[in-house]
Specification:
The complex is a heterodimer of chains A (549) and B (421). Chain A is of the alpha+beta class and 549 residues long. Chain A contains 24 helices and eleven strands. Chain A folds into five domains: 2-116 and 293-315, no CATH class; 133-164 and 251-288, no CATH class; 186-245, no CATH class; 331-445, no CATH class; 451-510 and 523-548, no CATH class. With 421 residues, chain B is α/β, with parallel strands linked by helices. Chain B has three domains: 6-127, no CATH class; 176-233, no CATH class; 239-419, von Willebrand factor, type A domain (Rossmann fold), CATH 3.40.50.410. In chain B, a hairpin with a 7-residue loop joins strand 2 and strand 3 (74-80). Classes of the chains: A alpha+beta (549), B alpha/beta (421).
Chain lengths: 549, 421
């Protein structure tokens, strides 16, 4: 890997100036590298982080990449990585005009990384530096513990999707206390509501009593208030002290829970395993926002490379070249999903709608289609609005909030589905729905969403780690359960239990054969009825058992 | 008439597309096969280690198949592995339909807009590998031929010698070995320079005594020597494999199953690996031995009387001598038995075996031990061990003893032992 030449770097700096003028915000320093195909082979399994720790699965991935490329070129890997400074990769022989377009795209990503709040936890450190330290740590551990290091990495990675990313964000974004003591928070938020479960009426009365105390006694008010609390609830002081000593552990972060409570990891001779778990957990958390903002991130970058390229004075004469490449990248596929195309169009749509002032009550209250069509307040606030969206939303919120019927109609989007034509052995794709709600549901289904699995704190004890899968309409992949739980048992050092939901039976309702019009798909039959059952998996001594609850 | 629906090639999801290949059209090149195989060995070694440590194996040998025209599918064998996690299973409805996707453009609701051929999803290796351990649902589905492909990854015939390379069949390899003047694929600089010197020497433009100044050279296009692609016939060593099986009374049931399934594997592997260049002969024996014409008969023949192993070995020796096979072939003999032999000290058997080892490249004996047997060593095992050849002539004679209810993985291990170098 080598840096791009000075000529290209000058182009990049020119792009930065223009991007800043347009409102994008990012740090001054960036690093641009030329990569060869050879580099890519090594880098892509490491998700383009050159300093990522070594692990044998990556070797298999590399091999798979090699093999697969012989048949189907192209594995997904990113151009920009979210580091300090941000690193981006380029093909050796891009012409200047193409580099201008890619630079703008890259700057769009960097702006997104450095401003979207879901990336908040990645802002203070350089991940390549951290990864390098981690890599060295793992190499050192391998020297001491041999292949067992790889087993621990394997088991840690098998649960690296069970990290409480949102919990981490929530802590980072929690506003500082405004003169309200922890005692107050605990009394009103936890003690009265959760422990005592007082009625609303009594709750309000307590607030009033507090206000009265403050009015009467000023700064002393709180103490006076709690003096009476101590009389009424003698147990409060002890409870508060107990709660204060330890942050309430919700068991939402299975990895962190193992780090804090696993009897095996706590043993002196196993401390090194904790380091590995920390590294794997950190790496996972680092990538969490990226996969949860794929549509927005690519959409935002595409929106800006198009906008900025079109007004760049340096690329005169290459408008047609650009149009061809840009169209190939951002065209809506006839069938399939393209994050670039969907994100870019949605950002443009949102900007226009905000320009017209449609995200207001005035507009949403309108029912007349003609009035809606003509509605235009000319607020000119569209740009600012999409900057707010890029700061505060993730894919789920983005899609869920802004995809609407007008958007679908404008771009003629639809939900596609396929039926099997058994005689000709082809899938026949057909238009299933042009309804915005259906489309939203389809997009939501396609989004990354790890299962919601938590530690049941009451049932977890000396003899077992008890995990609960909170069912959200989809079962777990059954064939992965064995090995995942094997790893958990190893890390916990004892029996592990998982409660989850599985399909008991699927009943396909009979449907009368209906005549099918030529060129049309047969009408979809009624949804099959699925009967669910709650089951409990137990992994003990590397043997997996299962029972219905 | 309505226009024909379009063909849908590949349906992408959100996470299939990323900058480097989507915008910059960059994708990593394939490494050479030899590089892959070397690391594959390391990986398999590591995978074997896992079992000893008490964890299930993780690497599968998968194959990627790219459908081609006229049935010429291209197969690439790759190791694959899955990192198991708790993840949602979107295919729980057990419907053929699979998930929907997005789309854009014309078309009314219900209208068919395109067709996509049904074929295995590209990219996922679907081969069942030997390392899977037990219990996985699809492991025995792979038929003998597929199995052969997979075994190929791990085995090759041992002690293969160059003997009478008569067969070439359809094997060719392409190499840049032929030279051509004037044009070609790769400029052979050394040969070109040599040619240039000859020409310029002839033209008198070169003074052999006072230093060489190549800038004065005349360069004629005819002097440029190129390498061009040439088709080379690959002559391969030929081999003959004898399969011997005891089908006596004591073999009924499981021992037969084990022996036969091991021979099926060896046979299918040879079939695939040495595509037609290896000839196979099949011999069944109880107290008498007879040759059967094909694997099918060999596989399906049922149990008869007592047991004399020596009969089968004698028959092989006779065939080899009569047809003078030793000169032109590498000869391999695989024998399957439950270990019973009326000739309990091997008085008849051992001389035959000794003679056999003078010409064969490897003799592999498999004993599928009866669970209810004597408990100790079987007769065949006893006299083979007693002969001392297992140690002394390790490269020629191998013995594999397993129980009659051995699993597939064990059987494959056995093959490895029988044919390893």
């Amino acid at each position: 890997m080598e840096l791009i030449d000075q000529h290209s770097k000058a182009i990049m700096e020119g792009c930065k100036e223009r991007a800043r003028d347009a409102g994008l915000r990012f740090e001054d320093e960036t690093l641009e590298y030329i990569v060869t195909n050879r580099d890519l082979l090594e880098l892509s399994p490491k998700i383009m982080i050159p300093t990522m720790y070594d692990y044998w699965v990556q070797d298999v991935e590399v091999l798979k990449g090699k093999g697969r490329y012989e048949l189907y070129p192209g594995n997904p890997f990113e151009t920009v990585i979210n580091t300090r400074p941000a690193i981006s990769y380029y093909n050796d022989n891009n012409p200047d005009w193409l580099n201008v377009m890619i630079f703008y795209h890259v700057l769009g990503h960097i702006d997104f990384f450095q401003n979207n709040l879901y990336f908040r936890h990645t802002w203070d450190d350089d991940f390549t530096g951290q990864a390098l330290a981690d890599k060295r740590a793992i190499t050192r551990l391998r020297g001491e513990h041999g292949r067992w290091v790889d087993y621990v990495i394997e088991f840690a990675r098998s649960i690296d999707n069970l990290v409480d990313f949102h919990g981490l964000l929530s802590n980072l974004h929690r506003p500082s206390r405004n003169g309200v003591s922890q005692r107050m928070d605990f009394y009103f938020d936890v003690f009265l509501q959760e422990r005592k479960q007082v009625r609303v009426n009594d709750y309000v009365k307590e607030i009033e009593r507090y206000n009265a105390c403050v009015r009467e006694h000023g700064a002393e008010g709180e103490d006076v208030f709690f003096r009476e609390v101590a009389v009424r609830y003698p147990e409060f002081a002890a409870m508060f002290e107990k709660a204060g000593r330890k942050q309430p552990d919700q068991g939402r972060d299975v990895m962190q829970f193992l780090l804090d409570h696993s009897p095996l990891l706590e043993r002196e001779e196993n401390r090194w395993m904790q380091d590995i778990l920390q590294i794997v957990r950190k790496t996972s958390l680092y990538f969490q926002p990226q996969i949860r903002t794929k549509i927005m991130n690519e959409g935002w970058a595409s929106y800006w490379h198009e906008t900025l390229f079109m007004r760049d004075d340096r690329i005169k004469g290459h408008e047609v070249d650009f149009a061809r490449v840009n169209a190939a990248v951002t065209a809506m596929p006839r069938v399939g999903l393209n994050p670039y195309a969907l994100g870019m169009r949605l950002f443009a749509f949102i900007e226009e709608a905000a320009d017209k002032g449609r995200y207001t009550r005035d507009f949403t209250a309108l029912t007349d289609i003609e009035q809606r069509r003509r509605f235009d307040r000319k607020t000119g606030a569209g740009r600012d609005f999409i900057f707010t969206v890029r700061e505060n939303y993730n894919d789920f919120l983005f899609v869920n909030s802004f995809i609407e019927q007008d958007f679908l109609d404008r771009h003629r989007l639809f939900v596609a589905d396929k039926v099997l034509d058994e005689q000709r052995m082809v899938w026949r794709w057909y238009v299933k729905s042009r309804n915005a709600e259906d489309y939203k549901a389809m997009v939501r289904e396609s989004l990354y969403h790890p299962p919601y699995i938590t530690v049941d704190l009451d049932k977890t004890g000396e003899d077992t780690l008890y995990l609960v899968h909170h069912f959200e309409g989809m079962p777990l992949v059954a064939e992965f359960i064995h090995n995942t739980m094997l790893g958990l048992e190893f890390l916990w050092g004892g029996k592990v239990t998982l409660e989850t939901t599985e399909v008991k039976s699927v009943k396909k309702p009979d449907q009368p054969v209906q005549p099918v019009l030529p060129g049309m798909a047969p009408a979809p039959g009624p949804e099959p009825e699925i009967e669910w059952q709650r089951v409990r998996y137990v992994m003990k001594d590397r043997k997996l058992g299962k029972g219905v609850i | 008439m309505k226009p024909q629906p379009d063909t849908v090639q590949h349906v992408t999801g959100f996470y299939d597309l990323a900058d480097l290949q989507w915008i910059q059209a960059l994708s990593p090149e394939g490494g050479s096969y030899s590089v892959r195989i070397k690391s594959l060995d390391d990986l398999m070694e590591r995978d074997k280690r896992r079992e000893k440590d008490g964890f299930p194996r993780k690497i599968r040998i998968g194959k990627l198949v790219k459908p081609g025209r006229g049935g010429k599918d291209k197969v690439v064998v790759v190791p694959t592995t899955v990192e198991e996690k708790f993840v949602h299973d979107p295919n729980f409805k057990e419907q053929a339909e699979g998930g929907g996707s997005g789309g854009s453009g014309e078309g009314e609701e219900g209208e068919v807009i395109g067709e996509q051929p049904v074929r295995p999803e590209p990219g996922e290796g679907d081969g069942a590998g030997p390392g899977q351990g037990e219990g996985s649902a699809h492991e025995m589905e792979s038929n003998a031929y597929d199995l052969g492909k997979i075994l190929t990854e791990q085995f090759s015939l041992p002690n293969l010698q160059n003997k009478g390379k008569k067969r070439s069949l359809t094997r060719y390899s392409y190499e840049l070995t032929d030279r051509h003047r004037g044009f070609g694929q790769l400029l052979d600089k050394k040969a070109t320079l040599r040619q240039l010197i000859k020409t310029n020497l002839a033209l008198g433009r070169l003074d052999p005594v006072g230093g060489l100044d190549t800038t004065d050279f005349l360069v004629s296009p005819q002097d440029k020597v190129y390498r061009i692609l040439s088709r080379e016939k690959d002559f391969e060593s030929q081999a003959m494999v004898f399969f011997l099986r005891d089908y006596s009374g004591s073999m009924s049931g499981k021992p037969t199953e084990v022996v036969v399934s091991q021979h099926v594997m060896i046979y299918s592997w040879i079939l695939y690996q040495y595509a037609g260049q290896v000839e196979s002969r099949f011999i069944l024996h109880d107290t008498e031995a007879k040759e059967v014409p094909d694997f099918y008969t060999y596989y399906n023949s049922r149990v008869a009387g007592g047991t004399k192993v020596a009969a089968a070995f004698r028959l092989v020796n006779e065939i080899v001598q009569k047809e003078n096979l030793a000169r032109d072939y590498n000869i391999y003999v695989f024998h399957g038995t439950d270990g019973d032999d009326w000739d309990s000290e091997g008085k008849e058997m051992l001389p035959e075996l000794e003679h056999m080892m003078t010409y064969s490249s490897r003799v592999g004996v498999t004993i599928a031990q009866n669970a209810y047997g004597s408990g100790g060593q079987t007769e065949v095992q006893k006299y083979l061990v007693g002969s001392g050849w297992l140690e002394e002539k390790k490269h020629l004679l191998r013995l594999d003893v397993m129980s009659e209810d051995a699993e597939e993985a064990r059987i494959i291990e056995g093959i490895k032992h029988l044919i390893s170098e």
